[in-house]
Specification:
Blueprint (H helix, E strand, L loop, with lengths): L4 H4 L4 E5 L19 E3 L6 E3 L6 E4 L2 E4 L6 E4 L4 E7 L5 E6 L1 H6 L1 H11 L7 E5 L12 H10 L5 H4 L8 H12 L3 E4 L29 E6 L6
Parallel strand pairs: 2-4, 3-5, 9-10
Antiparallel strand pairs: 1-11, 5-8, 6-11, 7-8, 7-9
Helix pairs in contact: 3-6
Length: 226
């Protein structure tokens, strides 16, 4: 199971990023049936989760202050982003592919968290296993759109090589712009990362894995749990 040292330091939360061998992180499995009923659509909808098995429809970000309910996202090259308030009182999971990043899902989620009493400055963030820029070649048109959209950034940050988009760097930029300063990149590249035996560690849509169910998530521990 892949974890973040930053999130491991937050009291009263449990988290993990799935792998090809353990699609649902072990730490989430005991509460897995309580997760929201959702369908990710590469949009910018963020939903406040307050009840177990909450039906949320189409959404790509989920946050809760209710103990015992896991919030999670499915990825297979996109950015799985996990957030937690430093006191452990709020957690969030965000699915940010290129569409979500371009349309502002991270900023939209952080704005809702702020409205719910959790400003960005109080959060730590873990950007999980994501396709790296070396492996993520996009069309000339899409590369140009991102260069224009992020014109305030040096082009080599957005596109380290011709037509190669850096999703991780853009997620980090969105987080810092919104006020999150403590963040960590964990897990490596979903496309090219291999274990010591040469096996791919993650599912990757670009590599041909379709309908992947590789999850990343976290929850606030119920009172009395250790």
């Amino acid at each position: 199971m892949i974890t973040s040292s930053l999130l491991n330091g937050i009291p009263g939360i449990r988290h993990g990023f799935g792998t090809a061998l353990a699609l649902v992180p072990e730490v989430l499995q005991p509460l897995w049936t309580l997760r929201p009923d959702k369908k990710q659509v590469h949009g910018t909808e963020a939903v406040h989760i307050t009840t177990p098995q909450q039906a949320v429809g189409h959404a790509d970000a989920f946050f809760t202050s209710t103990p015992g309910i896991p919030v999670s996202v499915i990825t297979a090259d996109c950015v799985p982003l996990l957030l937690a308030r430093r006191d452990g009182g709020m957690v969030a999971a965000v699915h940010a592919g290129w569409r979500g990043l371009y349309d502002g899902i991270i900023g939209a989620t952080l704005a809702q968290l702020a409205q719910a009493g959790t400003p960005a400055a109080s959060l730590v963030a873990a950007i999980g296993p994501t396709i790296c820029a070396n492996c993520y070649e996009v069309s000339e048109e899409l590369a140009g759109q991102f260069a224009s959209h992020y014109a305030a950034l040096p082009r080599e940050v957005v596109l380290p090589a011709h037509r190669h988009l850096d999703l991780r760097a853009l997620a980090a930029h969105e987080l810092r712009t919104a006020g999150v300063q403590d963040l960590e990149h964990v897990g490596g590249c979903t496309f090219c990362a291999r274990d010591g035996a040469g096996h791919h560690i993650y599912r990757s849509y670009r590599r041909g894995d379709r309908n992947s169910q590789m999850h990343a998530g976290l929850y606030i521990t119920p009172k009395g749990d250790t």
